[in-house]
Design a protein that fits this description.
Elements (H helix, E strand, L loop, with lengths): L1 E5 L2 E4 L7 E10 L2 E11 L4 E5 L6 H8 L7 E6 L2 E3 L4 H6 L2 E4 L11 H5 L6 E2 L2 E2 L1 H14 L17 H14 L4 E5 L7 H16 L3 E5 L3 H7 L2 E6 L2 E7 L5 H29 L1
Parallel strand pairs: 5-12, 5-13, 8-11, 11-12
Antiparallel strand pairs: 1-2, 3-4, 3-6, 6-7, 9-10, 13-14
Length: about 280
């Protein structure tokens, strides 16, 4: 099922039809190293859970894949071809889109206006509002968002789960083939979280490949096909869902957290002793 690919980390075997490959990616900010020789693969129609403690490098990796930041070294392959991403706009044009935790929605605008934000349909000098309303409604229905009564509602009036769904619908409407979800389940109740998980399953059924950052490992195992653990800027774990467990994932993260605390304590003790 798995073979060693880098160091002593067991990595799942790459496949010829993987839609996305990240190879030997590193990222440094001056003296700070955020990512170290990261290798990651994403299959077509696969949901990959990316987990790890705060500061592990998850958001940095997502920003590199979506073109927001360049890597210091390494390369990205899309459909087997190396791509040099220089902007989020370029990545989006290639079918890679991201939904951040803050969603980038404008609360005072309606659902359909947010769906077409910065890509409005225009018949000069007027906006084609009727056409945008119709397209927004069709897209929302197509991906199975059933709790939204009208695309004319202001986003400010929506729940957190509905806002998350609208942000995802906007990305899917832009013809995303690889969707990056940064904490889509954060601060959601059980009912809203379940609705977002259903949305992710529906996107997978449509053939969209997804990388999902999450801290709730039970939800990760519920919806993801495979799990990667990022620790200290390195991928230290790569297993299929059926080959791991909630207990294993929790123990690995907790053990790493304890080790970091011990290292900081030893460092502080050494500083005090030497002073």
């Amino acid at each position: 099922m798995s073979t060693p690919e880098t160091g002593d980390v067991a990595m799942t075997t790459p496949k010829a039809d993987d839609i996305l490959r990240v190879e030997h990616i590193s990222k440094r900010y001056g003296a700070v190293t955020a990512l170290v020789d990261v290798n990651l693969r994403l299959g077509r129609g696969e949901v990959l859970g990316l987990i790890g403690d705060n500061g592990a490098g998850k958001s940095t990796l997502i920003k590199i894949i979506c073109g927001f930041q360049p890597p210091t070294s390494g390369r990205i392959l899309l459909n087997g071809e190396e791509v040099h991403l220089t902007s989020v706009t370029q990545a989006r044009s290639l079918g890679i889109d991201v939904v951040y935790q803050d969603l980038a929605l404008i609360p005072q605008l309606t659902v359909y206006q947010n769906m077409f934000l910065n890509r409005e349909q225009v018949r000069w000098p007027l906006l084609r509002n009727r056409s945008m309303r119709k397209a927004a409604k069709e897209q929302i229905d197509a991906i199975g968002i059933t709790t939204l009564k009208s695309v004319d509602l202001e986003v400010a009036s929506l729940s957190g789960g509905q806002r998350q769904a609208i942000a995802v619908a906007r990305s899917v409407y832009s013809d995303a083939k690889v969707l990056l979800l940064d904490e889509p389940l954060a601060a959601m109740g059980v009912k809203e979280g379940a609705a977002i998980l259903d949305l992710v399953r529906g996107l997978k059924d449509r053939g969209i490949s997804i990388i999902m950052i999450a801290h709730n490992y039970g939800q990760v195992l519920e919806v993801c096909d495979r799990v990667n653990l990022l620790q200290g800027g390195k991928i230290t774990f790569d297993k299929y869902r059926q080959d791991t467990s909630l207990e294993e994932l929790t123990e690995m993260v907790v053990s790493e957290y304890r080790k970091a605390l011990e290292d900081r304590h030893r460092s502080a003790s050494g500083t005090i002793t030497g002073s």
